[in-house]
Structure formats: C-alpha cells, structure tokens
Design brief:
This protein is α/β, with parallel strands linked by helices. Helices cover about 40% and strands about 15% of the residues. It contains 15 helices and 17 strands. α2 packs across α3, α3 packs across α4 and α8 packs across α10.
C-alpha cells in the first residue's frame, strides 16, 4: 500500500459510476483490494487505518493457559464469534499438538456461531455449529440464549478482538460458568496522523462517504475525533453529508450510540459494500445543473462539467462553486463564501477573491459575476 492514500492524493481511476466522488477508507486489512475496487469505479480514495496493521495478539503462554482451562472441564455451550479468532486458536492448538483434543472437546458442546466466517473456520477443522443468526450480530446470539436455563452450564466464549467481559458477567448472573478465550486484541493504529487527517476531511465534509469494515474501527475513529475536539463535527457530518458505509450489521451497530445513520449491503462482504456505494452515491448526488452566461455547468460530486467538458478545480474554487450553485442567481456574500472554504485556507476576503478568480479561469470568466460591495453570484438568467 502506497503512502498516496493518506492525504487524499491517490489518483482516481477511469470514468465510472463513482467518478467525482471521494471516499475515505478506514480498513487495516484487505485495504489494497478495497481501494482497487473503488478506484476501478472512478472513486478517489483517502486511506487512514483506524486500527493497527498488525493486531496485538495475546501472548502464546496466556492463550495456552486458557486452553488448558477449557480442556479441564466439559463444555456445554461454545460461542464462536470470529473467523480469524477461531482460525488463530485452532492453529495455535495444532502447533502445541493439542488440536485433535481441542476439536473433540469442543465438538461435544452445543456450538453457536456469530456468522459465516466463524462457521467456515469451525467447519474447516471438522466442527459443526448448531445455529447461527442470519444477522451475523452477536447480540442475536445472546438473544437466542435468552430464557434458557443456564444454571450450572459451562460456556466458552471466543472473543472477537474486543473484550466481551460484560457478556461474560451477564451469563454468570444467569448461573453459568464462563471461560473467555482471547486470541487477539485490536489496537488503534500506531501512527494516528492519517486518522487525524481523515477526521478533518469528514468534519469539513470534503468526503462523500467513509467505509468501515469492523466495529472497533468505528470506536477508534470516534475516540480519535474526541481527542482533537472534532467528534461533534464528525457526527454532524455523518448525519448530513458524509455517508457512513458499513460492511455489515455488526459494524453498523457501533454507530447507533452516536445517532449516525448508516447503509450496509444485504451480504456482509467487501464487494457487496462497494456495489452498494456504486448505487447509493450517484442517487444521493444526482448533480446540479446550472445554465449561466450561455454555458451549461453540471456539478456531480467533485466533478464539474462545462458544456460537457470536465473542468479541473482545486478544493477552494470548487467550494465556491458549490456555494453559488446552491442559490443560482442569488448574491452570496464574501463572508458566507469564506465560511465555505476548506479548512486551512487563509481567512480573508482576498482568499475568497483568489478562489473566485481560479473558478472563473476554469469555468468561464462570465459565469461568475461580481456584485459590487455585496459578493458574487452565478450569471443565471432571471426566469
């Protein structure tokens, strides 16, 4: 993965359904695949991993010790939550020479799996789940247990990168003995700089969407946003202009705490998420069409077409055009236009005038009119 994605300078691919859209990517795993899928459809990507590229795994001695605890007592109920966690645990048992014993031991229990990835990891080692929810949500696994008599039951819970200690406490209140198996822990990215940059992009609404492939990534982004005092701005942006796109319901549920609306595909798969973006973003951004000074100006995301030809605009003049196009023909004051300029732009009337000058150079000198002592307007004919 190149550094280009960190600051949004990664080049967009050929024209496609996502041409003109800028999409933030928070994944740490399979990021090359995701970016390639998006860019192939014309999107520009800003990549900032929310989580460590190398998840902190639990010490081998610690995992081996908890495995011995599991093997020491018959297991009545086994809850498998992630494919990577199950694979890691069973692979470790194989290295210790205890795989057959562990598989035989767990195979005598009632096995509930959270989703298809954990199901796949179980079946590859000859284990078979009794039930898995269609939603792939761990909450629905717990709901499946609600009302059952768990008094005296030994329940083993394979954790999913974040501690499930509250779940364990709840099961213990029902009389169960619970053993939690932590195969790995997810940690925030070692270098938060790209994430802080992504947060600015979201808060300043210079992105059209951000993709999330895990609930911990949502938590990490919100924690980072709070640390720089921009969490409220990030939430407001997601609620209005930036589309929070999640790979599945588990990830989407992490946004519920913040009141952020999300979209997710029917199947929790990377390709399905990208396909959803391909459909959703053009629908949400049909584009603005303005007839000004004899020119046809169409704005679709970050793409501006003048009489059918793309005009290259940097962020500041693009922001000015968006502001003027929101009120075609109406005068927009310099103060209002200044407020629309991207973060980091000099806060002065001169900055507005320079952005307008660059806009005129790109779309036509007569498209934007100066209204003396009042501001600027698009040269739209009165009806």
């Amino acid at each position: 993965m190149t550094e280009a994605y960190d600051d949004g300078s990664g080049a967009a691919g050929p024209d496609g359904p996502l041409s003109g859209f800028t999409i933030g990517v928070t994944a740490a795993r399979k990021v090359e695949e995701q970016v390639a899928l998006l860019e192939r459809r014309g999107a520009r990507c800003v990549w900032a991993p929310a989580l460590s590229l190398d998840p902190k795994r639990v010490d081998d001695d610690e995992l081996r010790a908890v495995t011995e605890q599991v093997l020491a007592t018959p297991v009545d109920l086994f809850l498998a939550t992630t494919g990577i966690g199950m694979k890691g645990w069973l692979d470790a048992a194989e290295q210790w020479g205890r795989l057959d014993e562990l598989v035989d031991h767990l195979g005598k229990a009632e096995i509930l799996a959270r989703g298809p990835k954990s199901v796949g990891a179980l079946r590859r080692r000859g284990l078979r789940e009794l039930w898995a929810p269609e939603s792939e949500r761990f909450d629905d696994v717990l709901a499946h247990l609600r009302g059952r008599d768990l008094d005296g039951a030994h329940i083993v819970v394979q954790e999913h990168g974040q501690s499930l200690s509250m779940v364990a406490h709840a099961l213990r209140r029902l009389g169960a003995t619970v053993t939690s198996v932590a195969v790995y822990r997810v940690e925030p990215a070692e270098d938060p700089t790209p994430m802080f940059g992504l947060i600015d992009h979201i808060a300043d609404r210079t992105l059209h969407a951000v993709t999330f492939t895990s609930a911990p990534a949502v938590a990490a982004l919100m924690e980072a946003a709070a640390s720089v005092g921009r969490r409220d701005a990030v939430i407001a942006a997601f609620q209005a202009d930036v589309l929070a796109t999640c790979v599945g319901p588990v990830t989407a549920a992490a946004f519920e705490l913040w009141g952020v609306p999300t979209v997710e595909p029917d199947r929790s798969r990377l390709a399905a998420m990208v396909k959803l973006l391909e459909l959703e973003l053009p629908l949400r951004h049909q584009g603005q069409l303005v007839e000004a000074a004899g020119h046809t100006v169409r704005i679709i995301g970050d793409t501006v077409l003048v009489d059918g030809t793309e005009a290259a605009l940097t962020p500041a003049p693009l922001a000015i055009l968006h502001a003027l196009a929101d009120h075609p023909g109406a005068v927009v004051s310099r103060r209002e236009l200044l407020a629309c300029l991207p973060r980091g732009t000099a806060a002065s009337d001169h900055a507005v005038d320079m952005a307008v000058a660059r806009l005129r150079a790109a779309v036509g000198t007569k498209v934007v009119q100066t209204v003396f002592k009042r501001g600027y307007r698009l040269a739209v004919e009165a009806p």
